[in-house]
Structures are given as structure tokens and as C-alpha cells.
Design a protein that fits this description.
This protein is 17% helix and 26% strand. It is elongated. A hairpin with a 6-residue loop joins β6 (133-139) and β7 (146-150). By secondary structure, the chain is of the alpha+beta class.
Length: 164
């Protein structure tokens, strides 16, 4: 008998042999499986009810997608809607380097001051970044990866210094 699971990162069905056991990484996207980040579903038994809601007052619901029905919750659907509105408001929406989901802007951090010694390349004779400078932080809503990038003003400042 074969067991199946769905990769939470790329939504690809992973079929594994019972003798070999479950995969620790997705063979398609190579992201880690297992633990709190995995979604285990019984793909052989689709929704026993054809209703979107199971009718018992719980938060559980069925979401239809290309591969059939997926069990989810109304709170997860609502969170997805709010996340999409936040992404739509952002100036930029970088993709997560880990799972390729769009990232949510978390805030801006000021860096520099007395604790930052800028490098002065001989080619320009001046630092590439002002002191202090700002970076924007982004958080992935799927895998919680945090990443940062220079704020727009600092990117423009650096390009100007490189062009001079």
C-alpha cells in the first residue's frame, strides 16, 4: 500500500512507498516536510459532505481547487484575504526565497550611527550608503522566513553614488 501527502510549499502530491517511509524533503521543490509546517490529508477519502461547511458549527470548511477539495478553516480563508489586501497595499511584494510566497512588509529598521563604519571604495571615494540608512523587513506568511532589503531612498542614493 502507498501513502500520500501534499507538500505545503508547492502543493504537489508526494507518493511514497510504505517500506521506505515518508520523505523528509519534497522531491519537487526540495523544501522540508514534517513537523509543524506539514499538512497531512487523507486524499483517498474526499469530502464526505458535498457542502462547503460541515454544518456542525465548527470552523472547518472545504476549499475547492484544481486537485479536488482541501480541508481548511474559515479563519484561514479570512487570513488569506487580509494577507492579499496587505500585499496589494505594499509598494513592493518580494517573493520568499524559501517557498516563493509573496512576503508581507513588517516595517523599516534604521541602521548605522556610531555602530556602523561605512566602507569607502577607492572607485567612488565615498560611502555607497548614507549613515544612518534604512532597510525594510518582510515576513513570509507561509514559512515565516524573514528577509530585508534596502529602502527605496537608500537604493537610489547608492545608484547615484555609483553613477557619479
Amino acid at each position: 500500500m502507498e501513502d500520500r501527502q501534499l507538500c505545503p510549499w508547492c502543493a504537489t502530491e508526494i507518493v511514497w512507498d510504505e517500506e521506505l517511509g515518508p520523505e523528509s524533503h519534497c522531491p519537487h521543490c526540495e523544501n522540508e516536510l514534517g513537523g509543524y509546517r506539514s499538512l497531512e490529508m487523507d486524499l483517498d477519502n474526499q469530502a464526505e459532505d458535498d457542502d462547503i461547511n460541515n454544518g456542525d458549527g465548527s470552523d472547518e470548511a472545504w476549499l475547492e481547487n484544481e486537485e479536488g477539495y482541501t480541508r481548511t478553516s474559515r479563519s484561514m480563508l479570512a487570513a488569506g484575504s487580509v494577507m492579499q489586501r496587505i500585499i496589494d497595499e505594499q509598494d513592493e511584494a518580494p517573493e520568499c526565497p524559501s517557498c516563493r510566497e509573496y512576503m508581507l512588509e513588517a516595517g523599516t529598521q534604521t541602521m548605522g550611527g556610531a555602530h556602523f563604519q561605512p566602507f569607502v571604495p577607492e572607485a567612488t571615494g565615498q560611502p555607497l550608503l548614507p549613515n544612518p540608512f534604512h532597510v525594510k523587513w518582510y515576513i513570509c506568511p507561509a514559512c515565516h522566513q524573514a528577509t530585508s532589503q534596502l529602502a527605496l531612498e537608500e537604493r537610489l542614493h547608492m545608484l547615484k553614488k555609483l553613477a557619479d
